[in-house]
Design brief:
Pfam families: FeS_assembly_P (PF01883). By secondary structure, the chain is α+β, with helices and mostly antiparallel strands. A 3-stranded mixed beta sheet has the order 3-4-5, covered by helices on one side. It has a two-stranded antiparallel ribbon with strand order 1-2. Strand 3 and strand 4 form a beta hairpin. The longest helix is centred in the middle third of the chain and has 13 residues. The chain starts with a helix and ends with a helix.
Amino acid sequence: MSITKEKVMEALSQVYDLEIGFDIVSLGLIYAVEVEDSDVRIKMTMTTPMCPLAGLMLEDARRKVSEIEGIKDVKMELTFDPPWTPEMASDDVRKILGL
């Protein structure tokens, strides 16, 4: 079974920012997904560098992606460059939040 970026993004869409109540994909927190054979590298951010749930969300994302059949290694990279802004969220999320 082939591992695709789409499958990884689908798994990541099951990870929620519990403070805001939306998944990390819809919030625009995923900056990059690279798939090489059975290894995945994910670059993501948080809505704020002071996010108290950062460790939990990173681990949840790593775990969800690791559950995809055929994945051997998942590397998570947390970055704040560029900083997250509400414009990075999906249209639906911005509409619900009144942004």
